[in-house]
User: What shape does this take?
Amino acid sequence: MDLAREFIIKMFTASILLLISWPMATGDFPPSLLWKSSTHPFPLSEGILSESSSIENEAISPIVIDQPVEETPVDEIPADESSAMSNIQPVIENPSDQLIQCLFSLTNVPSPKAAAFRPDGQEIWVTSLMNSYRGLIVFDAITGAHLKNIVLPDGGAVELIFNQDGSRVYASQMETARVFELDAQTKEILRILPTGSTWTKELALSADQNWLYASNWVGNDVSIINLQTGQLQRREPTVKTPRGIYLFNNFLYVAGFDNGEIEKINLINGQGEVIYQTGGAMRHIVGDPEKGVLYVSDMGRARIYKVDLDTDQVIEFAQTDINPNTIALSPDGRVLAVSNRGRNHPSGNYYIPGLEWGSILFFDTTDGQLLEALIGGNQPTALAISPDGQRLVYSNFLDHNLTVCQLPCYEDLKAAGGQSDQYREFLAK
Assistant: This one.
């Protein structure tokens, strides 16, 4: 009885702490709103970094994991262990005029923030935000079978990427400003890489796979980590609240969320230049190096912008639905998918489902034409396309689930003549 009472007290305390901290947890809103909260743990006024040049750090060594991390922390075992497993729910019927066929949903996936297919296309890895019980969850990409829950010490995960050959996974832990390196096959943690900054978000790897870049939302910088040694090389100052990042040759492109900037940083001399600014909220960047273009989502302006990598000219590419966030490019570069969270709840509290559903939009990259649209759930967020271009996964953040869909080829999407705006009639609940 005493053990049961102790467990209940711990769970109640954890729930209260979560309710207090959760409104600032995802970080996808301007820090000017965060600063109004007395519970926010970070400085309220001036940025954490004041240096105008690259910040050199004393060597911060990685933490090497010699033994496998326990799957289940003792004080967080649910009363029913099956509650930590996801359930597969087949999609019974797709709209008759919908070219993209959704196959199944995966339920009981807490706060799914980001998703990625393993480079061989066999698995889907998902981050669970601020979740100390299972920071990463792995599924079979074909059947949806729940393969593994992965515990990340001290918190959950926000973003993740695979290296080029698919042997390693890197997952950022926002609340501790660390990156976890995992063996993709064994799914065990190999190293913990401190970023030396605050509120770590997006990750990128250099072309030679030897350097890891991590954007730091509150640190207002990007950490550069040497993966051969595991040590932090330096922190590169950026515009305020860097989110998405993209590497091209010796330049780093940064999406600034607070003021809607696209910044280009010369990694040789550390000089940065804002090449475009909307006053919105730039969030995510994907690139097509063969065509020499980037696509950047602006959550504040409901737009996607296109950057010419040769000239740095920026043009408006497409208008989206409300609150676009994650974007994904098909392997052939011909289709851009965009997850849109939808209109916030009238109270302004976007941890309460709003009055309309979110959406997933598909654009032709040649002309920005809308090819197809899916009606999502409450706040579609995570988004990924399989390496063969045949499957797509997206999450509904507030519904705690994922949906896996079958993608038709570009020619079939194009032949249908494009999607009209009629789907918007079905966004209202």
Remarks:
- Residues 131 and 423 are 34 Å apart (CA to CA).
- The radius of gyration is 21 Å.
